[in-house]
Amino acid sequence: MIFYVSLLLVIALFATIIKPDKSKGRAKAFAIVAFGCLGFVSAVRSIDVGVDTLQYCSNYQVIAFIDWANYDTLRYEPAFFALCKTLNYISSDYRLLIAVSSAIIFAGVSFFYYKLTEDPLVTVFLFVTLLIDAFLMSGMRQALAMSVALVGLYHLLKGRRVLFCVLVLLAAQFHSSAIVCLAYWPLLNRKFSTKAFVLIVAASAVAFVFAHQLYDLASGLIGKYEGYLENANHAHGGSNYFGALMRAGFFFFVLLVAHYCLKDSYGTANERSLSASSQVGINVSFLMYVGMLAFFFNVLGMQVEIFSRMNNYFNIFLPLLIPCAFNRLSEKKEVPIIKYVSLSLCLAYFSAILILRPEWNGIVPYSTFF
């Protein structure tokens, strides 16, 4: 854990020197250095860093001997199989897969954050402490899908609807669950409200109660994702249940704070995010909706593990939502208190999981492949 905290301190020091919120050029330089460092850490990690890294690296070498026509032998989606197969023509060394996949993942995610964040340093801090970075170093296929889908959303914000759909469909060829990212479109210009907050929390509670029925609806996925599905009769035990419970509780707190800060901005001229690096903005209502969906899927994840994976397509927006919330708090005297208390709790959440439950993400201890 000390390694990641030290990395954050170095990035914070660089931000203090360069002041990325002052101009487009400075924001770009900060994004390149900060996400470049995080991407490099991911690219040179050993096979032991990331819960699923070993599985993907082992199967990478197996794919070299599988014919193109039998791409579904390992039950991987065609785009991921194609990536592995193509890289095998260059080298069968699994380190190539780790490096190339990290480059693709961090290029897409950092581009999206750079273009839309109102506070680059806070976004990077939350990207690490909310364990989004940790997931990107573990769930390789889904991380690739998320990166492609975020680039698609950026094009949707630019009005390129067809390209958005094409990129989401491409993302689904890395991980089929990415098709859920099509939900970004109808939520894009929908106004959030206190009523919506309450309704989604209530829907989450109802969904938890009727988890058996939702399990039946999800059973069509068993063929590919049976390892993620847990019988609801056994869900109330083990680290998956308590991990989802902890995440859901923490996300609820974060979203409650964000809603308190943003409640006067929904549907107003102040709703659109203002980035120093781009003319493209994103509505805070959208950010609240996707944040609440992350909470919803975390609640479901207490019963059916695959739903915990679905939340990753939505919690990745929290590093954009929270800076927007801080910047729109009407009582300016409250900003320092709410900001630093919230960020301190995010750091405490990050530290508690890495110290008490390091097996959930598998990123500690960190080691390189050389």
- The chain-level structural class is mainly alpha
Q: How many helices does DSSP assign?
A: 19
Q: Could you tell me the strand content as a percent range?
A: under 5%
Q: Tell me roughly what share of residues is in helical segments.
A: 55-70%
Span from first to last CA?
Answer: 20 Å
Look at the structure and give the mean pLDDT: 88
List the helices and strands in order. HHHHHHHHHHHHHHHHHHH
- The low-confidence parts are 229-239
Computed CA radius of gyration, to the nearest angstrom = 20 Å
Q: Largest beta sheet, briefly?
A: none
Q: Globular, elongated, flat, extended or rod-shaped: what is the shape?
A: globular
How many beta strands in the DSSP annotation? 0
Explain what this protein looks like in three dimensions.
The structure is a single chain. The chain has helices at residues 2-18, 24-43, 53-63, 78-90, 94-116, 120-129, 132-136, 140-157, 161-171, 184-187, 194-209, 211-218, 222-225, 238-262, 284-300, 306-310, 312-315, 318-328, 335-356. It is mostly helical. Helix 5 packs parallel to helix 8 and helix 6 (120-129) packs across helix 18. The longest helix has 25 residues, at 238-262.
Task: Provide key terms for this protein.
370 residues; mainly alpha; globular
Quick overview:
With 370 residues, the chain is mainly α. The chain has 19 helices and no strands. About 3% of the residues have low confidence.
